[in-house]
Amino acid sequence: MAELTEDEPAPEHGGVFESDSPDVYGVVSSRAGPAGSLPVTADDLIERPSGDLFGWTQDVGMGWNPGRLSRAEAFIQGGHNEFCDRGRED
Questions:
Q1: Exposure pattern of 19-40 as b/e (b: 16+ CB <10 Å)?
Q2: Reported pTM
Q3: Chain centre to alpha carbon of residue 80
Q4: Is the dihedral of CA 64, 68, 74, 79 positive or negative?
Q5: Three-state DSSP state, 35
Q6: What tens digit of pLDDT does each residue of 57-81 get?
């Protein structure tokens, strides 16, 4: 993203917020979700962190198979991050 300097004026909003086109109103803001229910048990509600249950709702909403949600999980962490040392002064 380009940065503005102090001597450059901010860009005008121009036609971004103003339009005579009816297409600007053709926004889909909601849709029907997937059919079915999450495989949540009473034990899940008691024992699992709320983040797991929230994550499941997000996963299924994105199209994941609800029957596969309670499988064992794995955390994959990369060994190198090129951004770690940026701006670091030793």
A1: eeeeeeeeeeeeeeeeeeeeeb
A2: 0.47
A3: 24
A4: negative
A5: coil
A6: 888 888 888 888 878 877 777 766 6
